[in-house]
Amino acid sequence: MSKLTNFLEALSGRHVVIVGDVMLDEFARGDVRRISPEAPVPVLEVTSRSHALGGAANAAANVASLAGRATLIGIVGADSSAAVVTSLLAERGIRSKLVTDPTRPTTHKTRLVARGQQIVRIDQESRAEPCADVRENLIRAVLDASADADGFILSDYAKGAVFPALTEALVTTAKKRGVPVIADPKHRDFRLYRGVSAITPNQNELELAVGRPLTSDADFHAAAADVLPLLEGGALVATRGADGMTLFEPNKAPFHVRAAAKSVFDVTGAGDTVIATLAIGLAAGIPMHDAVTIASAAAGVVVSKVGTASVTSAELASALASAPAD
Questions:
Q1: Which residues does 18 contact at the CB level (< 8 Å), separation at least 6?
Q2: Whether domain 2-322 has CATH 3.40.50.150
Q3: How far apart are CA 69 and CA 11, in angstroms?
Q4: The pTM is what?
Q5: Is 272 a catalytic residue?
Q6: Domain boundary assignment for the chain
Q7: Model confidence over 165-198: pLDDT tens digits?
Q8: Could you say which of 217, 272, 290, 326 is catalytic?
Q9: Percentage of the chain surpassing pLDDT 90?
Q10: Which of 67, 220, 263, 320 has its CA at 20 to 30 Å from residue 143's CA atom?
Q11: What is the DSSP string of 8-41?
């Protein structure tokens, strides 16, 4: 794995523009010792609260933690959650071009955790399409941030920030610059992402896109045959949880990477880590197969952490150095 470890030096300073659904993740942790007398529900006695960047913001955090330069573009509300997001971005050294929409809340997910286990999640969000002015401001922000971009991420959580005109503008800009754009899809119709360099759906997202369950390697190969023509030349990186990741490219044999995690504590945000690592790797000129292998190792690091997390260059180097050779 020494070759892959050496590749990590190339990530430093690469500028990745992340466009998509910005979220604030909140964790309220404590213990449950009794049932409420008002209703048959557990009472969580909260002992700590913490906040983390989620969604597209978490992808940006991962780019920054890998020594890249991250610029984040997305929508926030005119509320206290937006202020927390802005503060967390500043702490990470992430440049942002956030568009404020006072008609909608900042997407805010609160997870109640007892003894390490989530017992409920509370979501504050709007999935409505943003108004014309907000859409225009998002596209303008993409164009303004693209002048020195080495790569782009489209982080789609179906909260309204990703729409056809924005995707088209992003792909057109990336092609003009000759740099990669990687999409994490949420919409079932993958034609929305045509022209991107690669998409990174998880198994559930891929099943929804093709309309059938995927239970074997042959099923994934058939799904790739359905999806690849929709991307018009882009690659499919199917993230398959404990079964690893499989890269499908037009007119090439599939490339599979085994799952790297030794222990899985929390999968929250693992997809953000995959797309961030893959995008910055391709932005640095790392070959696709190697970038996918490195992204798999990065996912193995973050799922061994609790809560929304990112991977550092040192952690990734250690994971690659200790990975068995195939």
A1: 56, 57, 59, 60, 63, 70, 71, 72, 73, 152, 153, 155, 276
A2: no
A3: 9
A4: 0.92
A5: yes
A6: 2-322
A7: 999 999 999 999 999 999 999 999 999 999 999 9
A8: 272
A9: 82
A10: 67
A11: GGGGTT-EEEEEE-EEEEEEEEEEEEEE-SSSSS
